[in-house]
Automatic annotation (TrEMBL):
<dbReference type="GO" id="GO:0004402">
    <property type="term" value="F:histone acetyltransferase activity"/>
</dbReference>
<dbReference type="InterPro" id="IPR001214">
    <property type="entry name" value="SET_dom"/>
</dbReference>
<keyword id="KW-0479">Metal-binding</keyword>
<dbReference type="InterPro" id="IPR013083">
    <property type="entry name" value="Znf_RING/FYVE/PHD"/>
</dbReference>
<dbReference type="InterPro" id="IPR046341">
    <property type="entry name" value="SET_dom_sf"/>
</dbReference>
<dbReference type="Pfam" id="PF00628">
    <property type="entry name" value="PHD"/>
</dbReference>
<dbReference type="InterPro" id="IPR001965">
    <property type="entry name" value="Znf_PHD"/>
</dbReference>
<keyword id="KW-0862">Zinc</keyword>
<dbReference type="GO" id="GO:0051726">
    <property type="term" value="P:regulation of cell cycle"/>
</dbReference>
<dbReference type="GO" id="GO:0003712">
    <property type="term" value="F:transcription coregulator activity"/>
</dbReference>
<feature type="domain" description="PHD-type">
    <location>
        <begin position="91"/>
        <end position="141"/>
    </location>
</feature>
<dbReference type="GO" id="GO:0005634">
    <property type="term" value="C:nucleus"/>
</dbReference>
<dbReference type="GO" id="GO:0003682">
    <property type="term" value="F:chromatin binding"/>
</dbReference>
<dbReference type="InterPro" id="IPR011011">
    <property type="entry name" value="Znf_FYVE_PHD"/>
</dbReference>
<dbReference type="GO" id="GO:0032259">
    <property type="term" value="P:methylation"/>
</dbReference>
<dbReference type="GO" id="GO:0008270">
    <property type="term" value="F:zinc ion binding"/>
</dbReference>
<keyword id="KW-0863">Zinc-finger</keyword>
Amino acid sequence: MLENFPPPKLLIHPNSTSEISILPPYAGATMAPSSNAPEQKLFQFKSSVGKRTEAPRCPSSPLPPPPKKYKSLKEIMKTAEHRVLDSDYDDVRCEECGSGDRPDEMLLCDKCDKGFHMCCLRPIVVRVPIGSWFCPSCSGERSVRSFPLKQTKIIDFFRIQICLDTPEKCSSPQDSRKRRRRSVPLVMYKKRRRLLPFNPTEDPERRLEQMSSLANALMTLHMEFSNDLTYMPGMAPKSANQARFEDGGMQVLSKEDIETLEHCRAMCRRGEWPPLLVVFDSCEGFTVEADSHIKDMTLITEYTGDVDYIKNRENDDCDSMMTLLLAKNPSNSLVICPDKRGNIARFINGINNHTPEGRKKQNLKCVRYNVNGECRVLLVAIRDIAKGERLYYDYNGYEQEYPTHHFI
C-alpha cells in the first residue's frame, strides 16, 4: 500500500503532443510492493493536447454546414406558374349547345373532362366555382323532395308556437296609428312611407302548401330553417354586429317600422306566413312567387343565416351571401351566409342589372337598417305584386361585385 505520499502529478512534455505520463511525485520515491498494485504504464493519446481550459480542436476538419431549409408546398405554389397546354383543350365544345366559343365561360368537369357553358347549364351557374366542379351527370342532380302536407310535420319543422286560446285576428300597428291620428288636427306635411305587414293567407290548407314548398327547398339543399341571424362558434360573435361600425353610418329603422317588423315576426312564430310559394325552375333553380296580391311597401321577409366575417368567406363558393356590415376596417365587415341555416329569402332570385329587361323585373328592394343598434337586412316590395309573379331584387344594391350578366 502507499506510504503517505502526495497524489501523483500529471506530466506533460512540452515538446510532445501525443504522450502523457503519470509519474510518482518525486524522482527517487518508491512505492511499497503490493501484489495487487498494477505496474506503472504510459498512456498513449492520439489526439493533441492543448491548454487545460480549451476543448480539443480539429483544425483540419471544417464545421458541418447548417441543415438546408426546404420551402413548404404553400410557398412554392405562391410563386409557381400554373400552365395548361392549350392544345389539350382546343377541341372542347359545350355539351349543351355544341359551340366552342366563349372559352372563358366554359366549365370542365373534373371527372369526365366534358365542357359546359355556365349559361347553358340548368340551373345556370353564375360564376366559376371554387375548387372541383362536376357536371350534372357525374354529380347526380338533387331531386326535389316532397314534404308531407301534415300539420304536425309543418309545426315541428318550423317550430311553430301553438296557442291554446284562439285569439281574435290581431290588428297591425298601422291600424292603431290610424285610430290615433283621427284626433290629431290636419297638418300639411310630406308623409314618409311606412312599412306594411304582409297579409297571410286565410285558408289553412293553402297555408300548409306554402310552408311545405319552403320545407321542400330547404331539405333539398340540406338546410335548417332559421328566421333569425345565427352566431355560430368560430364565426363572428354577436358583439361584432353593431351598426355604429358601418362606414358612413346606417339608416335607422323608425319606431313604427320596428313595430311592424316585430308584428311580422310574431305572425311567423304562430304559423302565419307571407303568401309566397317556392317553386323549382329548370333555368333559375328554386325561386319564389307571390301566391296572392302583395301591396307596395309590404315587408316580405328578413334575410337570415349565419353571420361571419367577410375575410373568412373570400374563397367561399356560396352564391347567396348577403352584405350585413361594411365597416371602416374591412377586417370587421360582416356577411350573412345562408348555406346551412336560413329562410325563404335564400330562394328569392336576383335580376340581371346589365340589361333594361332585367331591371324591369325588379319588384323588391334589399335594405340594410339599424334596428336597435344591430344591423339587419329587410326585403321590401317596391310596387304592387300580382299573384303568380316571381320575386326579384338587385343583388348589387350596395356593391357592384356580384356577376349577374348570366341571369335571365
